[in-house]
Design brief:
Keywords: Membrane, Transmembrane, Transmembrane helix. The chain crosses the membrane at residues 60-82, 91-113, 119-136. This protein is mainly alpha-helical. It is 67% helix and 4% strand. It is built from 6 helices and 2 strands; from the N terminus they run ααααβααβ. Strands 1-2 form a two-stranded parallel sheet. Helix 1 (2-23) runs antiparallel to helix 4 (59-81) and helix 5 (88-109) packs antiparallel against helix 6.
Length: 147
């Protein structure tokens, strides 16, 4: 179980980064971070080949899916760290970042947080939060009644 969670975390984290590297604008911070360590990914043959396809990909794939994937990755990592023991304490840490993302998206409706509310973002954040629990159901120890 632990290996599956770690694999799911690393795979989904990598997939989200890959979508950014292959299809997103080179103005994103990740490209400047890579340049700092001597990697100019924007001028690689792979990037030059894939970036032309970005205009054919749906917006949800380019902009919402990576965030949902990273929420999924985070939850898998937290379940891995907490050894799949779900208590009140671990549940706070497991859901902290996903709930911040979800509530930040909702707060955009009321102009509490800068940005434009996007229902697709909200759907992917929610899927990212709950998918690990569904995929790995019956693989964790539920201890919600214990403090």
């Amino acid at each position: 179980m632990k290996k599956k969670l770690l694999f799911a975390h690393l795979f989904s984290l990598s997939l989200g980064v890959l979508i950014y590297l292959l299809f997103r604008s080179e103005s994103l911070k990740i490209f400047s971070w890579l340049k700092i360590i001597g990697i100019d990914f924007t001028n690689t043959d792979l990037r030059k080949t894939t970036i032309v396809f970005a205009k054919f990909l749906p917006d949800w794939f380019l902009f919402s899916l990576p965030d949902g994937i990273w929420i999924f990755s985070y939850v898998c990592l937290m379940l891995y760290i907490w050894k799949s023991n779900i208590s009140v304490q671990s549940l706070i840490w497991i859901t902290l970042i996903p709930l911040i993302a979800i509530f930040s998206e909702i707060a955009q409706i009321f102009h509490i947080v800068n940005g434009t509310f996007d229902i697709i973002d909200l759907i992917f954040y929610t899927l990212g939060l709950f998918s690990p629990f569904i995929i790995f159901k019956n693989k964790y120890n539920l201890k919600l009644l214990k403090l």
